[in-house]
Amino acid sequence: MRKLWVQIEDSAPQKLKKALLEASKNICDTVVVGEDDIELAKSYGFHVASPIGGEIQTIDEKMLEKIEELKKQQKTVCLKLIIKDRTDEAKAIDAVKKGVDYIIVSCPNWKIIPLENLIAKSHGKTKLLAEVPNSQEAKVALETLELGADGVILRASSPHEIGITSTLIKTIRTRSEEKETKIELVPAKVVSCRPLSMGSRVCIDTCDLMTHGEGMLVGCQSLGLFLIQAEVEESPHVGPRPFRVNAGPVSLYILTPDNKTRYLAELGAGDEVLIVDRDGSYRTGTVGRIKIEKRPLTLVEADVDGSRVKVIVQNAETIRFVTRDGSKSISELKVDDEVLVYYQPGGRHFGVLVGEESIIER
Description:
Elements: E1 3-7, H1 14-24, E2 30-32, H2 38-43, E3 47-50, E4 56-59, H3 67-72, E5 76-82, H4 86-97, E6 102-106, H5 112-122, E7 127-132, H6 135-143, E8 151-155, H7 159-171, H8 175-178, E9 186-206, E10 214-221, E11 224-229, E12 244-249, E13 253-256, E14 260-263, E15 272-277, E16 282-304, E17 307-314, E18 320-322, E19 327-329, E20 338-343, E21 347-349, E22 352-354
Parallel strand pairs: 1-2, 1-8, 2-3, 3-4, 4-5, 5-6, 6-7, 7-8
Antiparallel strand pairs: 9-12, 9-16, 9-20, 10-11, 10-13, 10-15, 11-20, 13-14, 15-16, 16-17, 18-19, 21-22
């Protein structure tokens, strides 16, 4: 879990300071305050980072040479640094070598590249916190270089923004963290494949590349979502499009981050979808565009532990169902074949799972 620190500005009115501290209770790890507000912050039960009198001692670049001395005194040391150029980046790395516990970086001009450089050089050696004014910039900092900063320090201007940023901290996952978590996919035995007439089907073009065994989970019912592989296979008639999943008609469900479902018709450029592989590992992908066209369709029905699940896909050779050891084109799929399904009984309320709700979906 990444850290959330809140900075209380010295110039803020007393009433606002108290409101920010109240909003940060049970949410924030540490508050950063000036000397005059240490006792106020401690009265709310916080760990305090401050130049003097806090559990964590904050220092600036003028005190770089004192880091080793402070560590000998068993101080927890946090360097606050404004990153304007590569010289400042070098100061941060020097502090890492001297054993600083935390580095708070503020990037007033270039924001992404300096943070990438520091993450690459300091990851696992110290805790790198990005100073941000709001939750939007916090998200960028936490996802940078697929590893993300170790946390953010929010220059809080409202209690509401603290709550939003706290929710973000709890839910956001970097690529490296996503690889450590999985969803359970189970085999479903095909019981029928039936051609249908024309319908509006959706191709999801992402801002990412997928590989063999990777795709997206879609289905007619929210309880049973089929893993449809991206268009990664070589073909004598069409080149691979590893950024694309030909997902099915507009009314299908698709699994998105945070275990929510959406209709394919709702998706557009900039939305997030879940990219899943046959082992259940997943990552978040961003939609580059949605392409809807009229195409002939096929209905596939399968059995999971006596429960019937269904999906409709375009009737074309490039649509492939992921299996335990490969993938199978819809044109080759037959009764008794096994395909991979994400099976999760229960109802959905605006995409959110309600496991206790009984629902009938046909």
